[in-house]
Amino acid sequence: MAGMASLDGGIVQAGRIRVLKAAAGGKNKGPVVYWMFRDQRSRDNWALIHAVDLANRSGKPVAVAFNLFHRFLGAHARQLGFMIRGLRELQDRLAALGIPFFLFRGEAADTIPQFLEDCQASVLVTDFSPLREVRKTKDDICRRVNASLAVQEVDAHNVVPLWIASGKLEYSAKTLRSKINKLLPEYLEKFPDLQTPITSWSGVDTPKIDWEGILADVRREGSAVPEVAWCEPGERAAMEVLMGNSEGFLTKRLKNYNTDRNNPLKPKALSGLSPYLHFGQISAQRCALEAHTFKKSSQQSVEAFLEELIVRRELADNFCFYQPHYDGIKGAWEWAQKTLMDHAGDKREHVYTKEQLETAKTADPLWNASQMEMVHHGKMHGFMRMYWAKKILEWTKDPQEALAIAIYLNDKYQLDGRDPSGYVGCMWSICGVHDQGWKERPVFGKIRYMNFAGCKRKFDVDGYISLVKRLVNEARKRKTASSPFTDAIPANPRRPPKQDQS
Ligand code: FAD
Ligand code: FO1
What we know:
Blueprint lengths: L2 E2 L12 E5 L10 E5 L9 H13 L3 E7 L8 H21 L3 E5 L2 H11 L4 E5 L4 H13 L5 E5 L7 H4 L7 H15 L23 H11 L13 H9 L5 H5 L3 H4 L13 H5 L5 H9 L6 H24 L11 H9 L11 H5 L6 H13 L4 H14 L3 H15 L6 H12 L20 H7 L2 H18 L24
Parallel strand pairs: 3-4, 3-6, 4-5, 6-7
Antiparallel strand pairs: 1-2, 2-7
Helix pairs in contact: 2-7, 3-4, 12-13, 13-19, 16-21, 17-18, 17-19, 18-19
Bound molecules: flavin-adenine dinucleotide and ligand FO1.
């Protein structure tokens, strides 16, 4: 059972930390190891801050370990390339701080306990994800490690730690919003400076990582979904997207967020942060802290952005953590399950197969464009994601199949896929999760409906279709290049930018 840590004098608030396994018996003298999973960054990372702090307070060395699974949850080159390039930058940043980085390939339930054994670690710190595969791996690790090793989990992803925000499955954004807002004064705090380790690493040798070889492997094995060139991976690029002088979201694009964020013709009105947030290359708390400084000039945009970044995103984590069926019809509220089943046998105007949907061969040019945007560009506009998923409900044989196809396509092609916000986005669109019942109609029952005519009233549908054609052409031209980033980022940036912990 997880419980609150008692962390006398630690830098990180106790509420951010859970004990997954207490140390039994004699105390181990070995290092503190941070097994990094979801928060793949050196700055603004509560799990890393805690690991270094623990090590320094007990005079022990500290290391970061990462396990590269074989195509985690079916990931392709698009997602894996982005992640690995980010990790390569991270290794250099950690080295500049004097923290060794170990990368293992295989099953974390094997590699991490082995490493802990080899270096006789005393504490394992890890970050938090609500996804079942991650939780199972952690359970397996807790069972396999030495009894005298303590395992602590730090929520480094949510601004308000998930278990502090709420101890139960929340019904809607409204019910979670009030809880989070009460806790923000306590948790939306400035990050402390990351200390450098006092005791240097002297245990297991840090083997050289063959980044080029790893990239070649994932490009080959995941070649069905190639990398995209428009989204540069890594911590530096993430901060540039947030705060850059030429195209930064807060610095240059924020004022249009409130008015244009639902217009698929203006994708730059959105932050573009989701891939970085998904892979933990930027901290949501950093984004929120910086956004607050723009409140005077763009209050409505800042409020709208914080609603998505904090309330909606953390609501998705809440759903996946407290609802074991977070990606199945059983996870829908009772009224929604009933209405979907009542209408499961309704006649559909079109019924498409997974292959027809995947290859964008429907009778709706708007839907086809959104599918092509996702397949070739790797990030579908947020507004179109709702329309896209709802049409899958309308055009497949039953809601179970609709949900399975939506999640399959989302996770296969979106750069930000495999995220709690993705499972909840599909569940919201198809199963009414966090939504209310609407006027009953065929196929949808009481699930909120969207249609082509509504889109036509809202934005220039033909303009969006033309925009996607351009994006697809650009992506196709680049497809022949072996790596989209060879010019964009040096393999080993010699001097990682100075850590700005303001
Ligand atoms: P911005 O509007 O700039 O938002 C900033 C951040 O707020 C996002 O990066 C994200 O972290 C968070 N956010 C925004 N909208 C939502 C939302 N509705 N729910 C939860 N968090 C939100 N998001 C993913 O990260 N991965 C997915 O795989 C994913 N799949 C989705 C599938 C469907 C069917 C739907 C309806 C939504 C999905 N979303 C997903 C949520 C949302 O569409 C994206 O987070 C957003 O479009 C990402 O673009 P952005 O960062 O430019 O958005
Ligand atoms: N995290 C890891 O620790 N190891 C991996 O091999 C890994 C691959 C991966 C592929 C695609 C993807 O979207 C995420 C991936 N992650 C990986 C990150 C992490 O597991 C996820 O971000 C969380 O599970 C989301 O909560």
